[in-house]
Amino acid sequence: MSEETHQLRCTECGARIAGTAVNSIFRCPDCNGLYDVIYPWSPLATSADVASGSNLPNPSALRWLWQERRTSTLPIDQSGVWRFRDLFPIVKNESIVTLREGNTPLYDLPRCAKIAGIDWLLAKHQGMNPTGSFKDTGMTAALSVAAQRGFEWVACASTGNTSAAMAAYAARGGLRSIVFIPEGKIAWGKLSQSMDYGALTIQLKTDFDGCVRVLTDLVTRFPIFLLNSVNPYRLEGQKTPAFEMLEQLEWQVPEHVIVPGGNLANGAALGKGFSEMHHLGLIPRVPKISIIQAEGANPLYRSLQENGGKQLIPVKANTRATAIRIGNPASWRKALRTLNATGGWCEQVTEQEIALAKAEIGAEGVGCEPASAVTFAGLKKLVAQGKITREERVVLVLTGHTLKDSQYTIDYHRNELLTEVEAAGASPLQQAQHAILRKPPVVLEADSDIVLRTLETHMKISSSVLPA
Ligand code: F0G
User: Fold this and answer.
1) Between the CA of residue 108 and those of 136, 409, 437, 446, what are the distances in Å?
2) Helix (H/G/I), strand (E/B), else coil: 257
3) Which atom of ligand 1 is nearest the CA belonging to 268?
4) Count of CB atoms situated within 10 Å of the CB of 183
5) How many angstroms is it from 22 CA to the middle of ligand 1?
6) What is the CA radius of gyration of the chain?
7) 106-132+235-428: what fold?
């Protein structure tokens, strides 16, 4: 498999170029549009492409091959991303840089399902990747392209997870990496990762959108491979959890998949994965993909409300879910295309709703970072609005591990997270739910009698308030 097996197609004007002909900012020189990677068998390929493409993937053969690779000891077969490499032949096998990413669990969340008022709820936990977020699935793909094309330097602007993933994969591949992060606005765990993996970490005195502006200028002046999600190869890796999810569900398609929205690439990546599977006959239909934004970082939601999605209305972003603190998302048109193609919705959720949802997911023993919890908060809203019905099967994509932002969790349990105004915005029911969920640490004398008395009191309280 090599570079010749794919092309890049501009999502705006449809112009097509060879993968190696792309410019350093991954935008069409004629219309500034972003690219999609296409193959002879893509839904967007022409009949000439299809005729020229040999060995088109066969659904039954693919399913068999993907299962077989599970028993292989080859690193690229053990990767839950590259195991599906037949559907994204973008690099030679020898160029692949892998940390055995993917292979993430699909958990059932029966208590959260009950809270939301539906029968069947699963979570695809992408936080269980090597660096603790879904970014690894895209980074292994795009970093491998950088390695194959001979780049020495790679870079990204990030709210923390992309930078952690990039730094790790660059280190594995022997490339050098530069990270741009907004000063003081990312979780410490994520910052520590890029340092640990040896990146040049630059904290800019701006927000994420400001970091993107600086980096976009820099890559036109220095030979750096840009690894933000405008790089379409990222999305090729990020589409593979769609394949893995369907395999885990024995090819039974759920009705809904819900993702958080930040720079708005991930929903589009999964949408591409589902639509390619549909086109190849692996699945009979695609699920609805819905995107949830934080109320303080809601440019797509606002644009849909105010102009039906014709123009993006950038916002000055502010949310404690720092991973999605993005006001001017690059991939908004791709996200919109996914919503329209699958029939999903875009919702927004408040800080208070995010905190509650995160604690509820945590209380199921699963846990996730705040940006991931918007999916569950959004699900509750979509059910309340009648857009998702009780019997429909829903998968939440949990994008980051709970340890990514432990300060948020500690602040929540100590009741130090929300302002008084935000807390007052909670309904009496929500306030009662918070009171049950909060588990601040208890400091006691090292005396077993005291501990026993505390335990008895605790048991009395919890048996009176715990849900059945
Ligand atoms: N969830 C988490 C945990 C994230 O880190 C991000 C994005 C998203 C959701 C949103 O995904 O941007 O594709 O809509 N984080 C980026 C970063 C921006 O730099 O780590 P998206």
Assistant:
1) 23, 22, 20, 39
2) strand
3) 13
4) 12
5) 24
6) 22
7) Rossmann fold (3.40.50)
